[in-house]
C-alpha cells in the first residue's frame, strides 16, 4: 500500500512515486486474488490502497497512469477453459468508504446529468456479495452458456459448472420469455456449506480454503464439473448484459427496481435485503442496518452497492475505463489485528525504487494469513517510528497488500534501535539517492542492477503486457543469471535453446514445449500492450491506450516520441509545452498527459539502450495497429477540444459522448485540433482556435453534428 503521508501535503514528485508504487502493488494483488484464488491481503487493505490511489489521482489528474488500478477489471482467464468474449464489458465498481464519499458519488451524478442540487435521485442499494462474478445467457428461456468475468472483456466458459449451481434457473419461468437475454450476478457459497467443505477437506488431509469467496471461486473453476456439483454453490442475480439477439429487446422495465422484480419473476434469486433509497439519510440508515447484521447473514458481504434507479439515466451516465458512473460499492471498514514486526527488508523495483517491507509474525486477518506488509518509504518509517521487534497493528483493507497502521510503543523491547534506511542498493551496492522533492530513494545502478533487470523483465511478461504465462520470477532470475535472457527480445529466441532448456533442473520436455508455445503465441501484440510492456515510468495501461489511440501504429508513435525527445533537448528549460515544439505540444495536449509524463517519455527515448531494445523487438514481434473506434463516425480519430460552460449537457458527459464516437478529446488547442466546441464563457482556447483557423462550434451546432 502507498505511504500514509497526508495527500494534501504531497508534492507532485511524491505523488508520482506513490502512484507508480501503488499500481504495481495492486496489480500483484489482483493476480493473486482473481487468478490464483489466493489473496495475500484482506479486502479492507486492498480497498484502502485503491482509495488512496484514487484520491491522489483526483488531486493530481495529470499524473494518472494508463495502467492505473482504476482502469483494471479482474484478470485474464485461467488456462484449461475455453474463452468467451463478453459482448458488453463486465465492469468492476468504484468504491466509497464514508458518508462523504457517497455524497460525492451522488453529487457527481447530478453534475454529469446537469441536475439541480438536491433534486430527487432514487438509488437502489444491494448487499455486495463476496463471491465470483459470472454471466449466464438464455435463448428462448433456456440456459445455453455461462462464463466468469475474467478480465472484463474475456471470461472462462464454465457452462457445465454453472449447470450444477443450486439456485440458477435452467429455464426461465415465463409464458413469453425473452428471445435472448444475458443475466449477470455473483456465484457464492454460504457459510455453513463452506464450513462443511473445509471439515471434509481436513478429514481427507487436504489444505482448507481460506474463506467462502476463495472456495466459491475455486469450485466454479474446476475442470471437472462433477467436483463443482459437490460444492453447493449459489447465485444472486443483479444485472444484465445483452438484452437481444435477433429477436425483440427483452423488457426489463424502466428502473433498476423493476428489473429486480423481473429477475424474481424469471425465478432468479435476488438479494432479499435490496432496498430503494430516496435520500442520503436512507442510504446511510440501510448501510448501518446491514453492517449490524452482517455477521448473522448466511453468506459473506463486504459492503453495499448503490445504483441509480432510472435505467435511462444509467445509459446516459455510461462508464469510465473500468467502472460504471452510475454505481459504486460502499465498503465496510477494514479489519485490524496485532502482531510482531520481526524484520524490515528492502525490495528494489524495476525503476530502482527502494521499498521497505515489514516481515511479520504470521497472523490471520479476515480469513487470510498475513506475513508481510508494506512500509511505503523511509519517511513513513520515521513518521511512525517503526522498529524491528515492535508490536504493531496491521490492517488488511481491500483484499490487497496489508499495511502497518500503528505501533504499540509501550510494548517496545528495551534494546530496540531506530531503523536506518540504506544509502546503497541491497541488490548491486550502487548508491541509493533520493531526488529533491521525491519520497522514494532509488538505486543509481540502472542496467547493472540485477534487481531492476528482474523487475523490468517481470513487468514485460506480466499479464497486462505480453502475458507470457509460465515465465515466472524464478525463470526470469535463472535465465538472467545464466545469460539466456539479457533483454526482452531474447525471450523470443529461447526456441534456439530448446534442447538445452529440456536438460535444466526442474524442466521437462512438456514444460519447455508449453512455455515456448505460449511465447510463440505472444509474438503478435496490440500496440497499447506493447507500449505498456516497455515499462516507461508513469506509462500504465490507461496511458498506453491513450498513446496507441493518438498515434495509431508503432512506427508513428516511435517517430513522434523521437521527435519529442529531440525538441526537448533543444528547449530543456521551457516550461510551456508550446515553447518546446510541435510534437511535444501534441503529446501534452492528449487528455491526462502533462509535462511530467511527457518528460518521462523523453527520458526513455533519450536512452540509446532503450532504442536498441525497440530495434531488437522489432525483429521478433508483430505490433498490431490500434483499433479505430467508431470508424463510421465523422469524428473518428479527430482531436476535439471543449471549452466554456455547456448548458444542455455537463462537460464530462459531452466528453464521454465524443469519445464514444471515436474522437480524441484534447485539453489544449494545437494545429492538429479538428474543432473546438465553445460553451458560455469560452476564452483563450477559442482565441487560439481563431488564430489557427480551426472550426469553432456552438453547443447547439455540436449536438446537431452528433445527431442528438
Question: How would you describe the overall organization of this protein?
Answer:
With 708 residues, the protein is an alpha+beta fold. Helices cover 36% and strands 19% of the residues. The chain has a 5-stranded mixed beta sheet with strand order 2-11-10-3-9, sandwiched between helices. A 5-stranded antiparallel beta sheet has the order 14-13-12-15-16. A 4-stranded antiparallel beta sheet has the order 5-4-7-8. Helix 23 links the parallel strand 21 and strand 22 (664-666). The longest helix is centred in the N-terminal third of the chain and has 24 residues, at 12-35. The radius of gyration is 26 Å and the shape is globular.
Describe the structure concisely for a colleague.
With 708 residues, the chain is an alpha+beta fold. It contains 25 helices and 24 strands.
Tell me the structural class.
alpha+beta
Cα-atom Rg, whole angstroms? 26 Å
- Count all strands and give the number: 24
Q: Please, how many helices?
A: 25
Described by strand count, sense and barrel closure, the largest sheet is: 5 strands, mixed
Layout of secondary structure:
Blueprint: H1 12-35, H2 43-59, E1 83-85, E2 94-96, H3 99-112, E3 123-129, E4 132-139, E5 142-148, E6 154-156, H4 159-162, E7 180-188, H5 191-203, H6 212-220, H7 225-229, E8 234-240, H8 256-265, E9 275-277, H9 280-292, E10 301-308, H10 311-317, E11 327-331, E12 335-348, E13 354-365, E14 368-374, H11 378-384, E15 391-396, E16 403-407, E17 432-433, E18 442-443, H12 450-460, H13 473-481, H14 498-501, H15 509-521, E19 524-526, H16 527-533, H17 541-551, H18 554-570, H19 577-580, H20 582-589, H21 595-606, H22 608-618, E20 622-624, E21 639-643, H23 651-660, E22 664-666, E23 673-678, H24 684-692, E24 695-698, H25 699-705
Parallel strand pairs: 2-11, 19-20, 21-22, 21-23, 23-24
Antiparallel strand pairs: 1-6, 3-9, 3-10, 4-5, 4-7, 7-8, 10-11, 12-13, 12-15, 13-14, 15-16, 17-18
Helix pairs in contact: 1-2, 12-13, 16-17, 17-18, 18-20, 18-21
Amino acid at each position: 500500500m502507498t505511504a500514509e503521508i497526508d495527500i494534501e501535503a504531497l508534492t507532485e514528485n511524491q505523488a508520482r512515486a506513490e502512484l507508480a508504487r501503488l499500481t504495481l502493488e495492486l496489480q500483484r494483488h489482483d493476480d493473486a486474488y482473481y487468478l490464483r484464488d489466493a489473496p495475500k491481503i484482506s479486502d479492507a487493505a486492498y480497498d484502502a490502497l485503491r482509495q488512496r490511489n484514487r484520491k491522489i489521482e483526483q488531486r493530481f489528474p495529470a499524473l494518472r497512469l494508463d495502467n492505473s488500478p482504476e482502469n483494471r477489471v479482474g484478470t485474464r482467464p485461467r488456462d484449461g477453459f475455453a474463452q468467451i468474449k463478453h459482448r458488453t464489458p463486465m465492469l468492476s465498481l468504484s468504491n466509497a468508504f464514508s458518508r462523504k464519499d457517497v455524497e460525492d458519488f451522488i453529487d457527481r451524478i447530478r453534475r454529469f446529468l446537469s441536475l439541480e442540487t438536491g433534486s430527487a435521485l432514487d438509488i437502489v442499494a444491494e448487499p455486495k456479495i463476496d463471491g465470483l462474478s459470472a454471466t449466464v445467457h438464455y435463448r428462448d428461456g433456456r440456459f445455453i452458456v455461462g462464463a466468469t468475468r475474467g478480465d472484463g472483456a474475456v471470461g472462462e466458459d464454465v457452462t457445465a459448472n454453472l449447470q450444477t449451481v443450486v439456485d440458477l434457473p435452467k429455464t426461465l419461468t415465463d409464458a413469453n420469455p425473452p428471445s435472448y437475454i444475458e443475466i449477470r450476478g455473483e456465484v457464492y457459497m454460504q457459510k455453513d456449506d463452506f464450513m462443511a467443505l473445509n471439515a471434509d477437506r481436513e478429514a481427507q488431509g487436504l489444505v482448507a480454503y481460506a474463506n467462502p469467496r476463495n472456495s466459491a471461486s475455486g469450485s466454479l473453476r474446476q475442470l471437472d464439473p462433477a467436483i463443482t456439483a459437490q460444492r453447493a454453490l449459489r447465485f444472486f442475480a443483479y444485472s444484465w448484459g445483452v438484452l437481444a439477439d435477433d429477436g425483440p429487446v427483452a423488457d426489463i422495465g424502466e428502473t433498476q427496481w423493476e428489473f429486480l422484480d423481473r429477475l424474481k419473476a424469471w425465478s432468479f434469486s435476488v438479494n432479499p435485503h435490496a432496498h430503494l433509497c430516496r435520500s442520503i439519510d436512507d442510504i446511510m440508515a440501510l448501510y448501518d442496518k446491514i453492517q449490524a447484521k452482517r455477521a448473522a447473514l448466511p453468506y459473506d458481504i463486504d459492503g453495499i452497492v448503490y445504483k441509480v434507479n432510472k435505467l435511462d439515466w444509467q445509459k446516459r451516465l455510461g462508464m469510465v475505463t473500468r467502472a460504471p458512473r452510475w454505481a459504486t460499492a460502499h465498503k465496510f471498514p477494514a479489519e485490524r489485528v496485532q502482531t510482531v514486526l520481526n524484520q524490515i527488508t528492502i525490495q528494489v523495483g524495476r525503476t530502482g525504487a527502494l521499498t521497505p517491507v515489514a516481515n511479520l509474525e504470521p497472523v490471520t486477518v479476515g480469513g487470510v494469513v498475513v506475513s508481510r506488509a508494506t512500509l511505503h518509504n523511509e519517511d513513513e518509517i520515521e513518521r511512525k517510528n517503526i522498529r524491528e521487534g515492535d508490536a504493531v497493528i496491521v490492517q488488511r483493507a481491500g483484499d490487497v497488500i496489508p499495511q502497518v497502521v500503528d505501533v504499540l510503543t509501550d510494548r517496545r523491547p528495551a534494546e530496540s534501535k531506530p531503523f536506518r534506511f540504506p544509502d546503497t542498493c541491497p541488490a548491486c551496492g550502487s548508491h541509493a539517492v533520493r531526488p529533491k522533492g521525491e519520497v522514494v530513494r532509488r538505486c543509481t545502478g540502472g542496467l547493472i542492477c540485477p534487481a531492476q533487470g528482474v523487475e523490468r523483465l517481470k513487468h514485460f511478461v506480466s499479464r497486462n503486457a505480453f502475458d507470457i504465462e509460465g515465465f515466472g520470477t524464478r525463470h526470469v532470475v535463472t535465465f538472467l543469471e545464466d545469460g539466456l535472457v539479457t533483454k526482452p527480445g531474447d525471450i523470443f529466441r529461447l526456441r534456439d535453446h530448446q534442447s538445452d532448456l529440456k536438460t535444466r533442473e526442474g524442466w521437462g520436455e512438456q514444460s519447455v514445449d508449453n512455455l515456448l508455445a505460449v511465447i510463440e503465441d505472444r509474438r503478435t501484440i496490440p500496440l497499447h500492450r506493447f507500449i505498456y510492456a516497455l515499462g516507461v515510468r508513469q506509462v500504465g495501461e490507461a496511458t498506453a491506450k491513450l498513446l496507441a489511440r493518438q498515434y495509431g501504429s508503432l512506427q508513428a508513435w516511435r517517430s513522434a516520441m523521437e521527435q519529442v525527445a529531440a525538441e526537448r533537448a533543444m528547449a530543456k528549460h521551457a516550461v510551456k509545452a508550446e515553447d518546446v515544439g510541435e510534437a511535444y505540444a501534441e503529446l501534452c495536449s492528449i487528455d491526462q498527459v502533462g509535462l511530467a509524463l511527457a518528460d518521462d517519455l523523453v527520458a526513455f527515448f533519450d536512452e540509446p539502450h532503450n532504442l536498441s531494445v525497440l530495434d531488437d523487438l522489432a525483429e521478433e514481434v508483430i505490433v498490431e495497429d490500434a483499433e479505430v473506434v467508431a470508424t463510421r463516425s465523422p469524428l473518428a480519430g479527430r482531436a476535439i477540444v471543449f471549452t466554456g460552460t455547456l448548458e444542455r449537457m455537463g462537460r464530462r458527459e459531452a466528453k464521454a459522448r465524443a469519445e464514444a464516437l471515436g474522437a480524441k478529446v484534447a485539453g489544449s488547442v494545437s494545429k492538429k485540433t479538428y474543432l473546438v466546441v465553445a460553451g458560455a464563457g469560452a476564452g483563450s482556447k477559442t482565441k487560439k482556435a481563431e488564430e489557427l483557423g480551426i472550426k469553432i462550434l456552438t453547443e447547439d451546432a455540436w449536438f446537431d453534428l452528433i445527431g442528438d
